[in-house]
Amino acid sequence: MLLHESLTHIHSQKKPRLHFGESFTLIVLFRANVSTNAIKTSKYNPFTFLPLNLFEQFQRIANAYFLFLLVLQVIPQISSLSWFTTVVPLVLVLTVTALKDATDDIVSTLENISNPNPFPVLRLRSEKWMDVQVGDIIKLENNQFVTADLLLLSSSEPLNLVYIETAELDGETNLKVRQALTVTGDLGEDIEKLADFNGEVLCEPPNNRLDRFTGTLTYAGQKYPLDNEKILLRGCTLRNTEWCFGLVLFGGPETKLMQNCGKTTFKRTSIDRLMNFLVICIFAFLAFMCIILAIGNYCWELNQGSQFIVFLPRQDDNAAGFSAFLTFWSYVIILNTVVPISLYVSVEIIRLGNSFYIEWDRKMYYARKDTPAEARTTTLNEELGQIKYIFSDKTGTLTQNIMIFNKCSINGKSYGDVYDYMGQRLEINEVKTVDFSFNPLADPRFMFHDHALVEAVKLENPEVHAFFRLLALCHTVMAEEKKEGEIFYQAQSPDEGALVTAARNFGFVFRSRTPDSVSIVEMGQQRSYELLAILDFNNVRKRMSVIVRSPEGKLSLYCKGADTIIYERLHQSCSKLMDVTTEHLNEFAGDGLRTLALAYKDLDEEYFNQWKQRHHEASTEMDDRESKLDQLYEEIEKDLLLLGATAIEDKLQDGVPQTIEQLSKADIKIWVLTGDKQETAENIGYSCNLLREEMTDVFVVSGNSSDDVRQELRSEEVFRNARSSMKLDVVEDSVFLTERTLGKSAKVVTDEVANGEYGLVINGHSLAHALERSTELEFLKTACMCKAVICCRVTPLQKAQVVELVKKYKQAVTLAIGDGANDVSMIKAAHIGVGISGQEGMQAVLSSDYSFAQFRFLERLLLVHGRWSYLRMCKFLRYFFYKNFTFTFVHFWYAFFCGFSAQTVYDEWFITLYNLMYTALPVLGMSLFDQDVNDVWSFQHPQLYVPGQLNLYFSKKAFFKCALHSGYSSMVLFFIPYAAMYDTVRDDGKDVADYQSFALLTQTCLLFAVSIQMSYWTAVNTFFVLGSLAMYFVVTFTMYSNGMFLTLPSAFPFIGTARNSLNQPNIWLTILLTSILCVLPVVTYRFLLIQLCPSINDKVRQAKAAPPPPTRRTRIRRTSSRRSGYAFSHAQGYGDLVTSGRFLRRPAVRSSGFTHVGRTTTGFSPMGRSAGYSPTGRPQTAKVPDVEVTSLQMYRTIKDPAL
């Protein structure tokens, strides 16, 4: 591939090499300096694993520290402990961590290998996707996955069309159309012609724009333009197309999908980062203690050392200064237990255990798809308990991407809600669904509950018939009928599919289409309408229209679109009907439904012929074509007559509103980043309780330049109000706080509070300006003051940029959740990435840290597992540091009584087994099983989550308190036993004040004191504490026995110490006294804290007598003046393709197969609003008498002889 003027050339040789295979085709063109299609998703390979993994592990300062200690311990003059006491734990930690990292990387790599099987090639040998290169011609077959960016050359479909599903790219499951150039489409599947294809593609360099492609094809001396409609992107899936050929333009990391994926970064939790800082502080404090003890040794050598030279001669007549130097390093080794290597082993075990809890949780298992929750990483669990910002995709994450025809309003009557005879609205689960058995072509999956609408259809209500006739004619849906009566619709938008399906079930079945006709079945009779024009949908028009001629020769224009747009074009005679329909639209919007207004107009033949001529002239203009066509559309789409409105439910996933409500109560801010239109995203925001009518205001930022966006952000009321009630007293030029971690300064935007609750909606083009360096702070400050933020029409890269912006300036933990490949960059950018394993593919799951099948499981992941994991980890760290600081500080006090000789106060075996055996089980038991409250109370009180966001359970302050507590305990544990044994004799008069007895008493007091200081005395904790104490006494009596001494005297010198000391009452009294003195301040402090300043945890525990009864959620019916703008699709429609004379699909099976029902009724008495019943008795529940009835041309069911 050659680069020239920032463009990419791809050209063929005169004689391309042909390759033949069994299952698909590959023709290899010229290859020069091109990249392969291989993608590297693993972090390691067999050669780089050991050095890279060790490099990562030694980035932990503690691991590097223990390696340094190992070097010191091999120096005999310094070390007073054996070298293996450091080597064995260090090697164990490195090995366990390396195995875990290797396993995670192997599993991730295996799951990321998409299509490892060979695909068919033209060269009689198999090729894998990784071997494809730029310039190859690929043959794809139906349902195959596209794994390179291709230029579509030809296909099996008429006019070289292909149908693709882009779920992996944008999360949308509706099919999209791509079409090859005519000049390449003529190549067909003729291998010889494809082999002789000698063209040159000049295109843009690799980039991440999924919606744009620019290039040209030079072939046979002609130059042809290339755009996005002729490109198949990696991540698409070929649907409903037998085969197609494509030329590889970009492969591997150069594809647009991979350009959007972002880089894989090594994620560490905030506790890990804090630990690195604390370890440095501990090292500094360790050095300080060692310096004090070294100075003490120097002074002792000068004053007292000469008295011991007689029986402790100095080697080589060393001076006091050199002795102090050696003492410094000796105490570095002895006091190293302030950061024991077992800390990191325990942390990994705790994280692994909490990961298993997530995977074993049956309440996060989705039985419908047999999908359990999965913890794809084991290093981020406690971070789940500190989330402050959630960035969520919409389509497929909050919604099911399934549209359901829910309600409608026809000629002033509302259908959809069902009422009993008392005027009370019934829930849909209390009403029998409508029986569509009268319609053999009905979709059996369609459900509707208001029987009155079916009755109106059967009674041949002219307005109702016109309503559904419009839905059956005004669309660009493709019909496919493989078997008699089995019709499948392929819609460019699920909205259109839902509307056409509704018309189908109510007796107006869209059957087939040609470029100039639409065939439908009206109440059992097939009719063919001549399709004269399609006035297609786009983001500016927000409506679409069709002009058709009925079999009777009547010209009509049918229009559907956003209600605000349609209302502007209605005839004045519709004013009263419009008022009634508006009220219905408000009710539909209050239920969170997507609304659409329908209107029609009869056309004069002469006028239409003139308009059609002008339309043809405008469509062939080279300059200003779009604006001229828009003027013609505006001209003919006026004086419309209103038919009614539809209401479609973009079905939310189960439990989404409740989940968002709970997360909001936990003070978690949710931002929705979606590629959808603004109206659609805002509508879903209301549906899922992200936006609420109770909010003070919802602002929309839609500026088209940086200045406009900045001005809109500064003028918003939320920003102005915040200035008067800011939590932190800052001025305009001082909006930062500086957070220093490891000496690195980072600017943090301060939190500001607005007066009231606000929402913010911003469009993609405005977001691009808002993310510019000069505007990003204004945007961030305004957005962070809002309760909810919705970013619409955003690209995958913009999603990641928004996440990075919050990470950069906010001292908060972020979580991103999505389900499609367009969410991968956002998932990788956030502290925590969560993938939804839905129908949009597995790309998001493969890049995530955690995955499950439904959005509602996020509530349990955060409020239960996340909070428990964070709480357990914080308690573990506090307890672990306490017990080890206490253990180490006793050495410090003892140094003043042993001549600063670096002698240990404990038995060497106790030092070895203290963290490994004696205190391991209690701390692990607490860290794996501890629950301050159960899961039911966690849901009942979401405020329990807030302390994690504020780092209240483990912080620098908490660490400092832990160090002070350890200092006090160590003084008690050293000086009380020392005083108790000073000049003390046994009952038989023998002396017990020897070193070994003192060491045994001190270590026993230490073990009792640290073991009983558990947070909660549960059955599990009690078992582990008593078990550890029992184990201590068993091991101690065994090691201090005569047999062990006789076996290896040098290793077991404490012969008989245990049985001689522990049988004395004063020893047990000393143990009791030290335990009480160590525990008493803690109990007193906790008691006063709970009484005087209780935390939310304390309040919940005090109120907890029994699990609260489950609250029954009642449906809240909102009233709203907001109506959703209807979105036909996420791109401009295909109306020009339908009417261009290019037949889109093969002809459908022609057969009526429909028995005309006529006026036959089921004997059902209507109960809906069309029957005149209403709990409020409002006039719209019956036909409005003073509304002028519009003149509707009703078509008689005359069978079309042509069909």
TrEMBL record:
Domain P-type ATPase N-terminal per the UniProt entry, residue ranges: 35-87
Record keywords: ATP-binding, Lipid transport, Magnesium, Membrane, Metal-binding, Nucleotide-binding, Translocase, Transmembrane, Transmembrane helix, Transport
Coiled coil (UniProt feature): none
Lineage, top ranks: Eukaryota, Metazoa, Chordata, Craniata, Vertebrata
Compartment annotation: Endomembrane system; Membrane
Membrane-related topology note: Multi-pass membrane protein
Main subcellular localisation: membrane
EC number(s) given by UniProt: 7.6.2.1
Annotated source species: Sparus aurata (Gilthead sea bream)
Protein known as: Phospholipid-transporting ATPase
Cofactor(s) needed for function: Mg(2+)
Transmembrane segments: 81-99, 277-300, 320-345, 876-897, 909-929, 958-978, 998-1017, 1029-1055, 1067-1089
One example of a Gene Ontology biological process annotation: Golgi organization
Keyword Transmembrane: yes
Catalytic activity line of the entry: ATP + H2O + phospholipidSide 1 = ADP + phosphate + phospholipidSide 2
Keyword Translocase: yes
Gene: LOC115582177
PANTHER family with a match to the protein in the record: PHOSPHOLIPID-TRANSPORTING ATPASE FETA, PROBABLE PHOSPHOLIPID-TRANSPORTING ATPASE
Ranges of biased composition (kind: Polar residues): 1155-1164
Residues that bind Mg(2+): 393, 395, 819, 823
Family of this protein: Belongs to the cation transport ATPase (P-type) (TC 3.A.3) family. Type IV subfamily.
Binding-site residues, ATP: 393-395, 496, 537, 560, 594, 674-676, 793, 799, 822-823
